[in-house]
Amino acid sequence: MSRFLTKTCPRLILAGCLPAPAARSARTYASTASPISQFDWEDPLLSKNLLTGEEVAISETAERYCQEQMLPRVLRAYRDEHYDPKILQEMGELGLLGATIKGYGCAGVSSVAGGLITRAVERVDSGYRSGMSVQSSLVMGGIDDFGSAELKERYLPEMAKGTLLGAFGLTEPNHGSDPGSMETTARPHPTKNGYYLLSGSKTWITNSPIADVLLVWAKLQETGKIRGFVVDKRDAPAGTLETPAIKNKNGLRASITGMIHLADCPVPKENMFPHVEGLRGPFTCLNSARYGIAFGTMGALEDCITRARTYALERKQFKGNPIAKYQLVQKKLADAVTDAAYGVLAAIQVGRLKDEGRATPEMISMIKRQNCDRALYNARVLQEIFGGNAVSDEYGIGRHVANLFVTQTYEGQSDIHSLILGRAITGLQAFV
Question: Which residues are known to be catalytic?
Answer without folding.
Answer: 411
